[in-house]
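ARCHIVE CARD
SHELF: 3
SLOT: left
DATA:
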Amino acid sequence: MTIGPKSVIIVGGSLAGLMHGVYFKRRGTDVVILEQDPNPIRGSHQAGIAIGPAVEEFLTKYDKTGVQSCTPPMTVRLAFRKQPETKRLLKSAGRNQTSWGLLYRILRANFDGMASDAVPNPPSAREEGEGRVQYYTGQRVTRLEYDRDKQVVSATFVDQGDGKEDTMTADLVIGAYGGRSTVRTLLENTYFENQFTLSFLKKSYIVSYNIPPDTPSFTPGTRLINWVWYSNVDEASPAMAEILTDIHNRLHGNTMPAGLVRPEVWNRQVANTLPHMAGPLAELISATHQTAVFVTKVHDALCQAPVLCDGKVILVGETLAAFRPHFALATEQAARHCLALAKVQEGEKSLDQWAREARVYGKRMWLASRLLGMFGWAGGGSFSNHYVCMSRSW
């Protein structure tokens, strides 16, 4: 094993930050995670994510909980408007899905021994040969300073609660703070059973798939159907302002939490599109009450410089490349970054090679996610849109 950093600060305590934190902890490095969210356990909004080969490899190498992390493989299928039959996209394609909250709890258990309903008996927070770890919530990083003479990076951060400012110094800083941040009657319906379905409608599309709840549970009847509805809306249009104006007449900048969507906005969205949906999807959408829907603008981003300050600051996950969420590759990308960075630490590849591979993969997936979005909207407009997301028991 080559000599790596003795101390690491990770800015961002989501999945990308936790994966890198677990890796460095396992190799004996002291790790501090600074997370802006003040909650001791981050809320998941019942978000669904895909488990790809890199995530599977990471969990095989570093997960000590033994907790099942995802559903069985799902086929990828396409649905067109009211057609009741779905078409399989690729004969060999399969996707494992899970919930953000479940994977977060598994990673927290491995990082700092956090117990939860998903992992009631976590592994020891620190075993022999492992580094010391801390997970600080409510901490917003405001400044990074690189001391070239001492070869260290200082991170200045502010406590969101009392406003107190503090500074930490480490050999390496990892930026992992992101790009910004069922109905039981359908139980036997093959439209949703173990499938990742892309339903193409008129200038909009809906992605739907099964995920476990955060608890977790993988038994049919206890899982969720996660669906995401994408529509193209001009950024500066009155329509965008109307969508993001809540029941209290307050205009939101990017995201409107569940419970605040105005009934007339949701009812119009459904009324305009429901007649064009296949029966199972229409039933799912009809059973969704507007109080359970949240709305958010979709953003993507691409950074061309993953390594800064002579290799002392490294950008990973959505901090480097944020894809449109219909690709569900954010966690897979973070795992790829972590596994490849491990090879750098072990002397199997150079940091320049890591950066080049990260840039190429990021740009390729960034472009592909845009292409799929254009296909879904039938060529509709520039990229400025919103999506609504909802999960229900299934």
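SLOT: right
DATA:
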Amino acid sequence: MEFLPGDLVLSTAGRDKGRYFIIIKVIENFAFICDGDLRRYEKPKKKKLKHLKHLGISDAQIKEKILCGQKITNSEIRKRIAHMLESDEISSPKGG
């Protein structure tokens, strides 16, 4: 599955393992991701694609704003992630 801006992903490696993020930009084998909380939109995390699990969920509102270059707030990102997790009933992974 191809990684695109606006997609919801799960981090599978690193100190942010088990956290959900939205992809902001994809360049070659890397994605720039944010969650609006620890990783703000202004300073996204650069992460290898192999360390992300694609969940097959995309947010059309966020995707459109990213592609059009419109302003996105961190609270909006947090709300959209929560909405996607709630509506698709994705269970939180058990970390440890």
